[in-house]
Amino acid sequence: MRPFRMAMPQSVEGACSVLKGSYKDHRVLGGGTDILSELKEGTQAPAMLVNLKAIPGLAGIAREARGLVLGALATLTDVAEHAEIKKHWPALATAAAHAATPQVRNAGTVGGNLCQRPRCWYYRHPEYPCLKKGGEICYARDGENEFHAIFDNATCNIIHPSNLAPALIAYGALVEIAGPDGKIEQVPVERFFVTPEQNITTETILEPSQVVVRVVLPAGSENAKSAFFEVREKQSYDWAVCASTVSLAMDGDVVRDARIVLSAVAPTPLRRADLEGMLKGQRITDELLAKLGEAAVAKATPLRDNKYKLILVKATLSRAIRQALKG
Ligand SMILES: Cc1cc2nc3c(=O)[nH]c(=O)nc-3n(C[C@H](O)[C@H](O)[C@H](O)COP(=O)(O)OP(=O)(O)OC[C@H]3O[C@@H](n4cnc5c(N)ncnc54)[C@H](O)[C@@H]3O)c2cc1C
């Protein structure tokens, strides 16, 4: 591992001003559960880590008039165990509770979860100069690709690993980003992620000198019927291989509005407006769910070893909807 220095800024402005430069020089440190593996694996070798832990006001979860505000340093455990989140935003609580392991959830933060890097084994292996590391090919395309993308994978086959992101998108959450000029920008979580075609070297819109400071679950989103349903090989120390998150606004038994996000199947969490349109104004029936499942995978482009994900998309989608309706 390359030696590095650690900065402990006392304010968000201080953190952003240390971060001026490039990702090669500086990286943010949240809980460290992801970036420290990258340092050990050699995929990142920054000269300095900018530790956010000494900045007051970034931890914890608070109710404000605009909604529920999750600090960037709130941990996955904080989210999973928060009584109000469990009651009003159950998809988010479940997504947080199922991620990783208890130890990782105790240390991993909301900001770090959204900014974590892909778990593609070719990206993570120092001997594979893949596209994301400035190389010329995606090794997963013809390599070992059972855990890779089945949608939007023409360039790079990573899947987005975050459990929180799809749930936050389903609730219309906003991410607050601070920059060196002291300005705070609010962006829908849905627009926080970039595709490999937009920028192959990163997964988010963050500039090197920006940090995530908060996530806001807007007031009103707590009234939805919602659920997160995932499938993983192991129940702990693993990532989802496919997940569906739904948030439904109902008029009696008719769907008035819907948000559907598929995850662990594409380089970004995938909001599916086409599927949402199929639900609006409809009663949920077995026939509708079957049609929805077929539509969900109609444009998939699976690789040699991950066709099983087509079945999982259909199953997780239908189960998430049924679970949401049960309340
Ligand atoms: C065995 C294992 C299993 C896992 N399974 C899952 C899973 O099922 N689902 C899931 O969602 N996750 C899973 N994870 C990932 C885990 O949730 C993340 O590692 C964790 O959430 C990252 O948070 P952190 O605070 O530790 O991030 P760090 O490691 O500190 O940072 C991660 C990245 O985000 C950047 N960063 C951190 N905070 C900020 C910020 N505020 N602003 C800007 N950039 C920032 C860092 O520079 C770094 O690039 C797993 C991890 C492990 C080790």
Quick rundown:
The protein is of the alpha+beta class and 327 residues long. Helix content is 29%, strand content 20%. Helix 10 packs antiparallel against helix 11 (286-297) and helix 11 runs antiparallel to helix 12.
Radius of gyration: 19 Å
Helix percentage: 25-40%
Counting H and I runs of at least 4 residues, what is the number of helices? 12
Low-confidence stretches: none
What small molecules does this complex bind? flavin-adenine dinucleotide
Main sheet record: 5 strands, antiparallel
Structural class, judged by helices and strands?
Answer: alpha+beta
What is the chain-wise order of helices and strands? EHEHEEEHHHHHHHEEEEEEEHHH
Q: What is the strand content?
A: 15-25%
Please describe what this structure looks like.
29% of the residues lie in helices and 20% in strands. The protein has 327 residues and is of the alpha+beta class. A five-stranded antiparallel β-sheet has the order 4-5-8-6-7. The chain has a four-stranded antiparallel β-sheet with strand order 9-10-11-12. β10 and β11 (254-263) form a beta hairpin. α10 packs antiparallel against α11 and α11 packs antiparallel against α12. The protein is globular and about 60 Å long. It starts with a strand and ends with a helix. The model has no long low-confidence stretch (mean pLDDT 96). Flavin-adenine dinucleotide is lined by residues 27-35, 52, 72, 76, 99-101, 104, 107-109, 111-113, 115-117, 161-163, 206, 211-212, 237-240.
